[in-house]
UniProtKB/TrEMBL annotation:
Protein name: Glucose-1-phosphate adenylyltransferase
Residue span, Glucose-1-phosphate adenylyltransferase/Bifunctional protein GlmU-like C-terminal hexapeptide domain: 289-378
Family: Belongs to the bacterial/plant glucose-1-phosphate adenylyltransferase family.
This enzyme's EC code(s): 2.7.7.27
Keyword match Transferase: yes
Site (Could play a key role in the communication between the regulatory and the substrate sites): 59, 98
SUPFAM superfamilies: Nucleotide-diphospho-sugar transferases, Trimeric LpxA-like enzymes
GO term, biological process aspect, one: glycogen biosynthetic process
Length: 402
C-alpha cells in the first residue's frame, strides 16, 4: 500500500561547533530540555502530523543515536509497514561511499523510498528544535500545486545575510534563491525543511549524481537546478518556534527558553502537541530538606540537597549540600559535590564536579560566555573552570581552566 508522504530525516551531522558535546556523539543525539534529545522533536512532529514512515540517515558517531531510536516505540513508530528505519551508508556492488552531501544521502536511499511509493517526500533536519505540523505544510503544497516547497521564517533584515534566503512573489512562488548573500533581497530564511513531489525529487537527484562537479547538496545544487528549470516552487511561511542549536550559545539559550514558555514560544507542557522521548526508567526526583529549587526543570531520578535556580537538570543528577546551580544545563548522571558552584554553563553527561569547585561564570561575571564541560569529565575539588572554557579532559583539584 502506497504512502501519501514519508519523511527522510538527515541526522548524520557532526555538530563541530558544539565542541566537547559532540566529540563522541552525533548532534541529533545531544540531550535537550531535561528529558529529551534533539531528534525527539522532528520524530514527534512526524507522528503528531500523521506521518508513520521515517528514514533516519545517520553517519557521524551513530552508536548512541541508534540505540536511542531503537524500534521507534516511544514515538509510536514501531510499525509492521512503515515505522522508523535507521539508514547508515552501506557497501554496494559498485563500492562504498560515505554520504557526500545532503542530496547524495537521499540519492543513496532511493530504493528505500520506492518501497513505499509515496506521492510526496518531506526532508527534515535532525539538529533543530522546532514544533511544526507537517500536515499543514503538505496542505499548502497541494493547494499551490507545487513541485517543491520550503518552510521559511522571516528573520531580522540585519541578520538575513547569515541564512539561505528565498525571494518570493506575492503568491509565495519562489523566484530566486540566495545563499548567505552580502546584499539580501529577502528576509525569508530557509529552515532546511522541504516537501518534494517524489517524481520530481527522484529526477533531480539522479541528474545531480551524474554531475561530477556537483557538491550533491540541496542548497547549492538541487534548489538552483529547480529554479533553472522554472519548476513550481513555493515558500511556506512558518510562524512557530524554530531554532538551529548549532552553537553552544544557541543550545544554552534554547534550553533557558523552555523555562519561560509564555514569552519564548516553545511550550513543552502543551498536551495537544506532545514531544515524546525514551523513558529513563528512573524513580521520581527528590528534593531533601534544605534543598532549594526555583524556576527550574528537574527530571527523573534527581537528588537535590543544594540550590538550583533557573536551570535544567536531566535524569539522575545529584546536587549535594551547599552546591549552587544557576542558569545552567546539567545533563544526565552528573554529580555536583558539596559547596560547588555551577553557573551559566552546559555540563554534559556523567560529569563529576568536585567539592568547592567553580564552573562557569564567576559571581561578579555572570554574562561572560557559556562554559562547556564534556561527557565523563571530572573537575577536581577546588578547581576553577572559566566562563568561556571548553573542557573535554579532567581538571585536577585546584587547577584553573580558562
Amino acid at each position: 500500500m502506497a504512502k501519501e508522504m514519508i519523511a527522510m530525516l538527515l541526522a548524520g551531522g557532526q555538530g563541530s561547533r558544539l565542541y566537547a558535546l559532540t566529540e563522541k556523539l552525533a548532534k541529533p543525539a545531544v540531550p535537550f530540555g531535561g528529558k529529551y534529545r534533539i531528534i525527539d522533536f522532528p520524530l514527534s512532529n512526524c507522528v503528531n502530523s500523521g506521518i508513520d514512515t521515517v528514514g533516519i540517515l545517520t553517519q557521524y558517531q551513530p552508536l548512541v543515536l541508534n540505540e536511542y531510536i531503537g524500534n521507534g516505540q516511544p514515538w509510536d513508530l514501531d510499525r509492521l509497514y512503515g515505522g522508523v528505519h535507521v539508514l547508515p551508508p552501506y557497501q554496494k556492488a559498485s563500492g562504498s561511499d560515505w554520504y557526500k552531501g545532503t542530496a547524495n544521502a537521499i540519492y543513496q536511499n532511493i530504493s528505500f523510498i520506492e518501497r513505499y511509493d509515496p506521492q510526496y517526500v518531506i526532508i527534515l533536519s535532525g539538529d533543530q528544535i522546532c514544533k511544526q505540523d507537517y500536515s499543514d505544510f503538505l496542505k499548502f503544497h497541494k493547494e499551490k500545486n507545487a513541485e517543491f516547497s520550503v518552510a521559511v521564517m522571516e528573520v531580522p533584515w540585519e541578520e538575513a545575510s547569515r541564512f539561505g534566503l528565498m525571494v518570493a512573489d506575492k503568491d509565495d512562488r519562489i523566484t530566486e534563491f540566495q545563499e548567505k548573500p552580502k546584499n539580501p533581497k529577502s528576509n525569508l530564511a530557509s529552515m532546511g525543511i522541504y516537501i518534494f513531489n517524489w517524481d520530481i525529487l527522484k529526477k533531480y537527484l539522479e541528474e545531480d549524481e551524474a554531475d561530477p562537479k556537483s557538491a550533491n547538496d540541496f542548497g547549492n545544487n538541487i534548489i538552483p537546478n529547480l529554479l533553472r528549470d522554472n519548476r513550481r516552487m513555493y515558500a511556506y511561511h512558518f510562524d512557530g518556534y524554530w531554532k538551529d542549536v548549532g552553537t553552544i550559545a544557541s543550545l544554552w539559550e534554547a534550553n533557558m527558553e523552555i523555562l519561560d514558555p509564555e514569552h519564548s514560544g516553545i511550550n513543552l507542557f502543551d498536551e495537544d502537541w506532545k514531544i515524546y522521548s525514551r523513558n529513563s526508567g528512573m524513580t521520581g526526583h527528590k528534593i531533601s530538606a534544605g534543598g532549594v529549587v526555583e524556576n527550574s526543570m528537574i527530571t527523573d531520578g534527581c537528588r537535590i540537597k543544594g540550590t538550583v535556580k533557573h536551570s535544567i537538570l536531566f535524569s539522575g543528577v545529584k546536587v549535594e549540600k551547599g552546591a549552587v546551580i544557576e542558569d545552567a544545563v546539567v545533563m544526565g548522571g552528573t554529580v555536583i559535590k558539596a559547596g560547588a558552584t555551577v553557573k551559566h554553563c552546559i555540563v554534559a553527561e556523567n560529569v563529576t564536579i568536585g567539592e568547592n569547585a567553580v564552573v562557569g561564570a564567576m559571581p561578579t561575571d555572570s554574562e561572560n560566555g557559556v562554559a562547556t564541560v564534556g561527557a565523563g569529565v571530572t573537575i577536581g575539588d577546588n578547581a576553577k573552570v572559566g566562563p568561556k572554557a571548553m573542557v573535554n579532559k579532567n581538571v585536577e583539584g585546584g587547577e584553573e581552566e580558562w
